[in-house]
Amino acid sequence: MSVPDPVGRVLLLGGTTEARRLAGMIAGEVDVVTSLAGRTTDPLRPAGETRIGGFGGVDGLARYLRDERVGAVVDATHPFAAAISGNAAAACAACGVPLLILRRPGWTAGPGDEWHRVASLPEAAGLLPRLGRRVFLTTGRQGIAHFAGLDGCWFLARSVEPPTGTVPRHLEVLLDRGPFTVAGERELITRHRVDVLVTKDSGGSDAKLVAARELGVPVVMVDRPAAPGAVTVSTADAAASWLRTLRR
Questions:
Q1: What does the alpha-carbon distance between residue 63 and residue 143 come to, in Å, rounded to a whole number?
Q2: What pLDDT score was predicted for residue 206?
Q3: Statement: 9-105+226-245 belongs to CATH 3.90.550.10
Q4: Which DSSP string do the residues of 207-247 spell out, in sequence order?
Q5: Cβ–Cβ under 8 Å, residues 150 and 125
Q6: What CA–CA distance (Å, rounded) separates 195 from 212?
Q7: What pLDDT is attached to residue 41?
Q8: pLDDT tens per residue, range 136-147
Q9: pLDDT value for 53
Q10: Do the domains 115-222 and 9-105+226-245 match in fold?
Q11: CA-atom Rg of the chain in angstroms
Q12: What is the predicted pLDDT for the residue at 100?
């Protein structure tokens, strides 16, 4: 797909499958740089130019937008990366730079699902004792500390990198990166005798949710934080089309 060059450089706040897909579509067609948070030691690199690390808050990001003559920002970060999304919205507003949010759709419970929706990880931890004792935790390594006080539970925590800081007493860490299959998730849940799954509503592949449904395992689903008020699309194709309109 040919995407005309918008006014100035495009800053793509990445770290997701959708961000990599968009970068692959537009690299070579527009002057785009993908920014990665740097929280993993071996991130999946998108096509085109990349930068690693934070900007230094709203002021630092605004300065970057001005210094680099950025003409558009696409926020394709993880749905739970509320801090950078908020900073991007504030910096773009201060600099008058168009902002697009690219977010994959969240998950929706279907027939046979037993979901318990909560607003936060602490709320999820408070719910666990009455739902199960063997917990499959897929909230990312930074969220594991919220479950450290639950000595009556055993946790299987899957993450790309090892957790740091306080962790539950009974914890097994599985270092792995998706995508995962329904058959693989079903085998994992069965082998570890998991009786409750805790996850964030990040959207994307739902293999673990299908496996939980098939095995009758309840799910504690942490809702997404509210997104900033900006134009929002759910696919890389739609984001590329938005970039095209900037020349009209």
A1: 31
A2: 93
A3: no
A4: HHHHHHHHHT--EEEEPPPPPPSSEEESSHHHHHHHHHHTT
A5: yes
A6: 9
A7: 62
A8: 999 988 889 999
A9: 87
A10: yes
A11: 20
A12: 97
Weakly modelled stretches of the chain, pLDDT under 50: 1-6
CA 124 to chain centre: 18
CATH architecture of the domain covering 115-222? 3-Layer(aba) Sandwich (3.40)
CB contact set of 245 (below 8 Å; sequence gap of 6+): none
Q: Give the Cα separation of 234 and 187 in Å (integer).
A: 31
The answer to whether the beta carbons of residues 87 and 63 sit under 8 Å apart is no
How distant is the alpha carbon of residue 40 from its chain centre?
A: 13
pLDDT, position 123:
98
Q: How far apart are CA 210 and CA 184, in angstroms?
A: 11
Q: Is 36 helix (H, G, I), strand (E, B) or coil?
A: strand
pTM, entire model:
0.85
Domain residue ranges of the chain, discontinuous segments joined by +: 9-105+226-245, 115-222
- List 137's β-bridge partners, or say none: 157, 198
Q: What pLDDT is stored for residue 29 in this prediction?
A: 80
Q: Which long-range contacts (CB under 8 A, 24 or more apart) does 223-227 make?
A: 223/117, 223/118, 223/119, 224/79, 224/80, 224/106, 224/200, 225/79, 225/80, 225/82, 227/79, 227/85, 227/101, 227/103
- Unique residue bearing structure tokens 């395992």: 217
94/164 Cα distance (integer angstroms): 36
